[in-house]
Amino acid sequence: MRKIINFFWRRKILLAALLIVIAYGIWSFIISPKKDVRLSYQVQKGTVAEELVLTGQVKAAEHAFLSFQSSGELAWLGVAEGEVVKKGQRLANLDTKIPYETFESAVAELRGTQASLDNVYDQVQGHATDESFAQRDLRTSAEVRRDKSYRALEIAKKNLSNLYLTAPFPGIVSSVTYPFTGIFIPLSQGVIEVVNPDSLYFEVSADQTEVAQLKNGVKVKIILDAYPSEEVDGVVSYVGYTPISGEVGTVYKVKIAFTEAYDLTKFRVGMGGDAKLILTEKENVLFAPPEFISSDATGKYIFVGPQKKKVYIETGIEGEDRVEIVSGISAGDTIYD
User: Fold this and answer.
1) Which residues sit opposite 303 in a β-bridge?
2) N or C: which end of the chain has fewer CB within 10 A?
3) In a 10 Å sphere around its CB, with 0-12 CB exposed, 13-18 middle and 19+ buried, how is residue 287 labelled?
């Protein structure tokens, strides 16, 4: 019987302790009045910029996915992923045995028809003004055969060149679809991807209301998602004249060139980020953080001094974290939120 009584007493004590803890928490965080903590800021002069923030990604002006203009067996592969290549360097080729034989036959055929034509020219020499029909027929037939063989050689030469892939610009091999030989490559199948890291730029899309504010030369601060604490300087180098096809609404391409050296080991094609386009910028002007500025029916105002006097102000350009103060307060004034 005593054990049962003790058990119930323990439960009552635990329940009472729990209620006390809950009551204290309610009092501390809800009922008890909070202290009036207000942030302050001393007005100063500096640079204020009106910015337009657009999302985009890194691209390369020199970026190509190379493919053969003919089908055939991959006979030679001379590069691997990550390898640096020069402009015009041979990268790979298909089996050239039969096309090369055709090319050699065309060379021999041209030599034969050219020799025949030279022989005919010797026969009709000195008859430029009194050439007979028979002589004209002989000369023309020889010229036609020579011309046909020349065109056949050019075709054979083109067909042979279609079996080779060369680097269109200096850069890095970023991908190789088939890193081995002996496989059949269909016509126009992408084989080797080459990108020139020195040609990187940042591209964003702007709608018709935004693009009206942009022009070549606008300064830009670029922040990549991969490196959120780093800013890279840039400048608008191209604003599209026609809308991007396939987009919802009227959207234009805007290219931003990097104006400072970037780390080739860090930047990659396809990296996303934000571009802060500086539309207007003023130096050595009064400014205040936007969170200290309020407004009512009369206008914009700010709380000044320890007494938090309400002072109406006139503002100028507005940036993301700074607002220009044209009149109403002076440098050194302390304002409160």
Assistant:
1) 310, 336
2) N
3) buried
Give me the sheet containing 72-77, strands edge to edge.
Answer: 164-166, 90-94, 72-77, 184-185
φ and ψ of 188, to 5 deg: 65, 15
Residue 152 confidence (pLDDT) above 90: yes
DSSP state of 11: H
Q: What is the pLDDT of residue 40?
A: 86
Angstrom CA distances, 25 to 13, 17, 20, 22, 204, stand at 19, 13, 9, 5, 51
Q: How far is CA 225 from the centre of its chain?
A: 13
Per the prediction, the chain carries an average pLDDT of 88
DSSP state of 33: P
CB atoms within 10 A of CB 229: 5
Task: Supply the pLDDT for residue 131.
Answer: 87
DSSP annotation string for 90-145: EEEEE--HHHHHHHHHHHHHHHHHHHHHHHHHHHSTT-SSS--HHHHHHHHHHHHH
Report the distance separating Cα 337 and Cα 39, nearest Å. Answer: 6
* Banded model confidence at residue 24, pLDDT cuts 50, 70, 90: low
Residue from 306, 305, 301 nearest 328 by CA: 301
DSSP category for residue 87 = T
Other Cβ atoms within 10 Å of 82 Cβ, number: 10
Q: 11: buried, middle or exposed (CB in 10 Å: 19+, 13-18, 0-12)?
A: exposed
Half-sphere exposure of 305 (CA within 13 A, CB side): 6
Residues contacting 46, CB < 8 A, separation 6+: 283, 284, 285, 287, 322
Tell me if 187 sits within 8 A of 70, measured CB to CB: yes
Task: Retrieve residue 261's tokens.
Answer: 């050296």
pLDDT tens digits, residue range 80-133? 999 999 999 999 999 999 999 999 999 999 999 999 999 999 998 888 888 899
- What gap in Å lies between CA 264 and CA 267, rounded to an integer? 6
- Count CB-CB contacts under 10 A for residue 79: 20
